[in-house]
Amino acid sequence: MRLAQEKQAGPPSGLDSLRKRQLEDELKDPKNFLEFFLPRPLRLLFFGGAAASCFIATLLSAVRFNGDLGYGLPFPRDDAVQVAVNLIGLVTFAGLYYQDNKAAGARLVRRQQLRERQIAFGDREVYTNTEGERMSKLREVDDDWILRRLERWGKKDGMPFVGPAKGKVLQQLVQEAAPKLVVEVGTLCGYSALLIAQALPPEGRLITIEADWKWVLVAKRFLGQAAEGHRKSLDPSKTLGRMDVWWGDAREKLAGWQGEGRIGLLFLDGVPKQSLEYLKAAEPHLAEGAVIIADNAGVFAGGGMKPYLEYVRSNPKFSSRYVESTLGWRDDVLDGLEVTTFLG
Questions:
Q1: Is the overall model pTM greater than 0.70, yes or no?
Q2: From CA 33, how far away is CA 35, in angstroms rounded?
Q3: What is 144-342's CATH number, 3.40.50.150, 3.30.2000.10, 3.40.640.10, 3.50.50.60?
Q4: Residues 37-62: pLDDT tens digits?
């Protein structure tokens, strides 16, 4: 297999890459307490040395045992016990050596499979060094890396993110509006916040509000990693707006809005039945021409979103339209975004 022949980045000159990989695999991710303090190379040395010691002791005990019998001495019970004990030790340590050495090969296979999955996911990049060798290395943790990780998590556990389909629509809407200040209601892990931040102009800022303090901590971690990775990025074409995570009830935060400036884009992704309350709290602080985007305007159109949709579609202060898409990770379930312009 092509990827099976790749080398990891940076093997030292003169050191066999396969042997180096074996050593690295043992030192990187020990599976238990013993492997943490006693990596496999040291365990093999110990088991091998113990087996050799038992073998020599068995030979010596057997020679003494036979010698005692040859001199016509009574049955040397102590010597027989020593021979048996040494044989048991020899078999035990030799077996441990064999099993541990066999497990090393299995670990290499698992490690190679992991590398291939990382390459398929986009978390590891393959390249050719100056000597023409194919090598691979983990990509730097940045906003794209965080988004891929969140998408895998969201798809696996059915997390209520906007998902890739609506995410593309959301980014396009943000790029078209080019707002200097975006407010998001409902942060969760920060997935949609990252999508918005990527689409903002360089001077753009995002304030995302989350009511659950546990998700605030999660979002701060992911968004902080994304921002730090972006600062280290060497790609000048990528932009990432400033991101701030606020903890609290969005209705209260928006009602007490002070000194943050006019809101150019409002993304509502909180509790559907509270969407109208979010909008009314933010309305005095909207810039003229501000864009309001409400998620789940399809699946909750007849339920929690109904009062909100009736308000923005009938109020002369707003011009509203529905953009159809799909629900999160379910391509077979239709959903959409209600895109509204504040006319002032």
A1: no
A2: 6
A3: 3.40.50.150
A4: 677 778 888 888 888 988 888 888 77
